[in-house]
Amino acid sequence: MAFPKLEAKKFASIRELNGISARTMEEHYELYKGYIGKTNEIQEKLTAVDRATANQIYSDLRALRVDLSFAIGGVKNHETYFGHLGGKGGTPSGRVMDQIKRDFPSYDAWLADFKASGLAARGWVWLAYDHDFNCLTTTVGDAQNTFPLWNATPILALDVYEHAYWIDYGRARAKYIDAFFNNLDWSVVEQNLERALAMQAVHK
User: Fold this and answer.
1) Tens digit of each residue's pLDDT (9 = 90 or more) over 103-139
2) What is the pLDDT of residues 57-105, one digit of tens each?
3) C-alpha angle 204/194/105, rounded to 5°?
4) Domain residue spans in the chain?
5) 163 has binding-site annotation
6) Pick the CATH number of 94-203 from 3.30.590.20, 3.55.40.20, 3.50.50.60, 1.10.3720.10
7) Phi, psi angles (nearest 5°) of residue 153
8) Where does Mn(2+) bind (predicted)?
9) pLDDT of residue 127
10) Is 203 annotated as a binding residue?
């Protein structure tokens, strides 16, 4: 099984942001590095696990496979999250705005729903491009590996685990969500959408 050994990426957003402290971002980044380490550790253990003992009630193979989905989810979600933070917020323009207005009643309606979804979710909220239905959709996840949409590409990821905001806001998650949008770099979200649309074109 050829799987690359992962290394933590560097992100310009790991610093003091507007309403999100440097300590929060640095602690959050260390958590991401932990997901990198565990992904590599699990991949190494998978190469040696005895497949003859596989069982759906409990087996080493099952435990490793389930936890691998959580660890890799932690890597990919955080890379999207850190990658589009550090901007000046505001509203999107170009294709992202056009797509949101096409697929939702309005930008304001989408934003209100996305923020509300951030209060409803236990772990993550994603804006994703669904390749089957050719549209943007909002989805929630209670953990790194729960409720994924098959054949959909996340273009915006909001981490609503407590570690993302507790130091700065305590229980006031809504204030953190506002701070998240105040620091969003919509140009990166635009790039993510363009990549998703390019994938769509290849598969047609």
Assistant:
1) 999 999 999 999 999 999 999 999 999 999 999 999 9
2) 999 999 999 999 999 999 999 999 999 999 999 999 999 999 999 999 9
3) 90
4) 22-83, 94-203
5) yes
6) 3.55.40.20
7) -110, 115
8) 28, 78, 159, 163
9) 98
10) no
